[in-house]
Amino acid sequence: MRAAVYHGAGRIELQELPDPAAGPGELVVRVDACGICGSDLMTWYQDPRAPVVLGHEPVGTVVEAGDGAPFAPGERVFVHHHVPCFTCRLCRAGRHTLCDLFRATRIDPGGLAERIRVPEPNVRADVLRLPDHLPDATATLVEPLACVLRGQRMAGVGPGSRVAVVGAGSMGLLEVQCALALGAEAVAVVEPRADRRPAAAALGAVLADGLDADAVRDALGGEGADQVFVCTHHHGAIAGSLAMAGPGGVVQLFAPTAPGEMVPLDLGAAFFREVSLQSTYSAGPFDTRDALDLLASGRVRADGVVTHRMGLDAVQEAFRLARSGEATKVVIEP
User: What's the pLDDT at 269?
Assistant: First the structure.
């Protein structure tokens, strides 16, 4: 089978790899679509793992089911690349993404391949059947939307929330839709790129004029945000987000900076407003199920989020488009 192998320093190429086989409780899934995530583009994160097949947002069709696997060939499924044990101290506290098994599990070899092997723990905990009406490209948003949903729950988004989203890339657009689906009263978006603002507005966001706390307050009716989601690693955006939060507000870092990067923050100004600073990583099996429900019901849409669909042969161009920002979200359809 063919797979897109990342070799480091931004270099990715197609290679022939052996076809996977399903062991007991495992699946082999033909990948019908897989999104390119921002983390796939982070050389500081991916280079130490190279050579590696990237892609962790796959959906596809079961072609082989090992003994005991609760799926049959021909079924369309979403596959989560990480799953928790459910029994450790962190899992019992609801922190599934910090579980040792969660960090150790993965699909083989990766979603940017024609076929993947899904290990038994993943099959058991977080492979989900897809409804017939849900297109493959939309279904690839289950994993990123689940990450957004988990973060918003952690930050306390709910009915009446006033939310600010910094960055209107694919994750920012999912943040907008997720907040509105959870009942947010208003969502303000800060996005310096003029070409990305219309998509946010079309999804129900109010546009704030510049990376400025006063602009965010104006967009939210004169008050600071209850929750601020920072969907960029830009230092100025991270620093400015603290001022966007109202009293008792939460600022959540959704996009990581590289380890060792120092971001200057005015913590003194945030202290007396009791602003909380959070980070969030990935999503658990309860989040993926709820994300699938949001997509299947149409409460969250792929409109404006998925902007390019390309074949595996075009993977190098797909990564170029994603890195340059010409594409908001690229989905590879092997």
Answer: 87
Q: Which residues contact 152 (CB under 8 A, 6 or more apart)?
A: 175, 178, 179, 182, 227, 229
38-46 contacts, C-beta under 8 A, 24 or more apart: 38/169, 38/170, 38/171, 38/255, 40/6, 40/319, 40/322, 41/319, 41/322, 41/323, 42/256, 42/258, 43/8, 43/9, 43/10, 44/258, 44/259, 45/256, 45/258, 46/6, 46/8
Q: How many H helices and E strands in the chain?
A: 13, 16
pLDDT band at 210 (very low <50, low <70, confident <90, very high): confident
Q: pLDDT tens digits, residue range 135-162?
A: 999 999 999 999 999 999 999 999 999 9
pTM over 0.90: yes
> What is the distance between the alpha carbons of residues 61 and 180, in angstroms, rounded to a whole number?
32
CB atoms within 10 A of CB 284: 25
Is residue 118 within 8 Å of residue 127, measured between CB atoms?
Answer: yes
Closest CA to 315 of 116, 77, 40: 40
Separation of alpha carbons 164 and 153, rounded Å: 15
Q: Where are the alpha helices (DSSP H) in the chain?
A: 43-46, 89-92, 100-104, 120-126, 136-139, 142-155, 170-181, 197-202, 213-219, 235-244, 267-271, 285-297, 315-324
Query: Where would I find the H helices in 194-234?
Result: 197-202, 213-219
